[in-house]
Design goal:
It catalyses: L-glutaminyl-[peptide chain release factor] + S-adenosyl-L-methionine = N(5)-methyl-L-glutaminyl-[peptide chain release factor] + S-adenosyl-L-homocysteine + H(+). GO terms for molecular function: nucleic acid binding; peptide chain release factor N(5)-glutamine methyltransferase activity. Methylates the class 1 translation termination release factors RF1/PrfA and RF2/PrfB on the glutamine residue of the universally conserved GGQ motif. It is an enzyme of class 2 (transferase). This protein has 299 residues and is α/β, with parallel strands linked by helices. The chain folds into two domains: 79 residues; 199 residues, Vaccinia Virus protein VP39 (Rossmann fold, 3-Layer(aba) Sandwich). 39% of the residues lie in helices and 20% in strands. The protein has a seven-stranded mixed beta sheet with strand order 7-6-5-8-9-11-10, with helices on both faces. Strand 5, helix 8 and strand 6 form a beta-alpha-beta unit. Helix 2 packs parallel to helix 5 and helix 3 runs antiparallel to helix 5. The protein is elongated and about 75 Å long. The N and C termini lie far apart (60 Å).
Amino acid sequence: MDSIASKIVVCMGNNMITLQDALKKGKKNLIENKIENGEHDAWLLLAFQFKISKAVYLAEPLKEISQEACDAYLSLIEKRSRHIPLQYITGEQEFMGLDFLVREGVLIPRQDTEILVMEALKVSKGKEVLDICTGSGCILLSLMKLGGIKQGTGADISEKALETARENAKRLEVTAEFCKSDIYSHINKKYDIIISNPPYIPTGIIPTLMEEVKDYEPVIALDGKEDGLYFYREICKGLQEFLNTGGYVFFEIGYDQGEAVKELLLKAGMDNIKIIKDLAGLDRVVTGRWNEKKGEPFT
């Protein structure tokens, strides 16, 4: 066989191999295949396969493993060498200190999105929350688990995303509602908070993204149409109808979209608008509050 798999899913013949030997092989393969953070990912896959912590590994790096266990680990490495995202291989991702199920066809939760959740947590207690483009449900379920919200609804157009979100709710022992909805198409009540991490990458930029994103993550969760602002416009059109007076809106945004989204919120009648930066100093979140007296019909 000439495949990558045939070249690496061989440990040491009939001899025993150690955890350290397996890790070295994993690191070498990912580095050769130019996987970003390849050494770190090789370790994470080792920890996943053998259910060990760093401390356990450091205490027993020369622990022997079977040929079968080694081959199973290197099969994970082979998948990662093809730029399949680590989270799709392990089926999990930590977000806000909680473990979320992830699968192909559903956007992988990002650390940057935790900033969005942390801003909403400041005002979420006792509130009813609508999460538009809920994906895996990581935003809504984190608010429900950590923020003491009264009720939460997650809306998405993707059945696979909704299925994943429902499974995550069960895993986290949270009661949430999820509905298939093209933005507001199946929403029939007002909320105290509307929150969203919508698709915001301009269509023309998507082919330039790293392989893990453009080739494996769902385009429907990435593509914000020509200028990346399509979904912000559509959500803003319904804020006056679906947001209670005094309610809050929270958006995750691209690094160069802060002022444009701020203008959309102003036009929709929001005030107290703030642009929050991430740890790299880039615009990451825009928030606002519905003031009915200032609002004008949004067109």
